[in-house]
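Changelog note: in this version the structure field was regenerated for every chain. One regenerated record is shown below for reference.
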Amino acid sequence: MTYRTSPPFRAEHVGSLLRPAELLEARDANSRGELSAQRLRGVEDHCIREIVSDQEKIGFKAVTDGEFRRTYFHIDFLERLEGVTVKGGIPVKFRGAQGEVDFAPPRLEVTGKLRHVGGIQTADFTFLKGTTTRVTKVCIPSPTMVHFRGGRAAIDTEAYPDLDEFFDDLAQCYRDEIAALAAVGCRYVQLDDTNLAYLCDDTMRQGALQRGDDPRELPRTYAKLINDSIRGRPADMTIGIHLCRGNFQSAWVAEGGYDPVAEILFNEIDVDGFFLEYDDHRSGSFEPLRFVPRNKIVVLGLLTSKVGDLEPKDELKHRIDDATQYLDLEQICLSPQCGFSSTVHGNRVTQQDQDAKLKLVVETAAEVWG
């Protein structure tokens, strides 16, 4: 077996990491008007340098900035697009081992024509690239995040009487951002997508129907949107997509195996790798992986980022072996099932828990693939 020399690597993580206390305190001070934006960025810079060093020491070949400059994995990016407005929140009941968690993440509406008005992640990427000699991964929300939760009702009919034009403009915004990232040297991008995984959940599928969307057709609509969004990327740029069933303070929203979306997901979306949640029964079996083409990589999210208990290494190896019933071992990599802090709030685990999980990923990958 071979260790991969290009991303996705055998040992990966999804991107977001727990914010250190120093950073959380600085963010609070900034929100109270006691710390300037410039000084807050200085604290962010310091904390990012430290978390990059930690990732290097653990042994990751690709590093991220932990999403330390963000409040949410998606809102901070999407609100920078002209035509996108944040309004109120969408009440959601997250479920976890410690019971239900009520949360109302900000709601997005399209209130005008969509336009990319300048690099969104370029400055952050440039700083990250300057902190390391490792491959640097940029995580951005999937373009589907602008559509799914609101549907037609959240898209201004004067700006977009025709939804095809909405999808075309949204894809152009993403092509512009990816081109801007490429121009400053980025060659590894991860799209974070909850919606293709939500479409594996019967309740979520029913919600889509109530909004006027056909859950049987949405995967194909989204495949086209994603493909249009990444069309024209440099030949040497790796793009992966991470599917998530919800990740807030160790709680989740959706459940269900990949069966309803698998054939379209794996065969019609032109990405290089799929980061898939497989940490518990909510993700179903490995059987849908039979649809994965031989030229695609699957990063199995076998370790949970939601609780601190460490998975036995032998159990991880056994599950990787189970997955090889449907995939060649050369097509498989390993990661936690999601980030440790998809929002600034973070999961209910400690920094020590996080480090132990990340070390376990690297150690297990080294033992499996050499």
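Spot check on this record: The first strand starts at residue 62 and ends at 63. Residues 151 and 210 are 10 Å apart (CA to CA).
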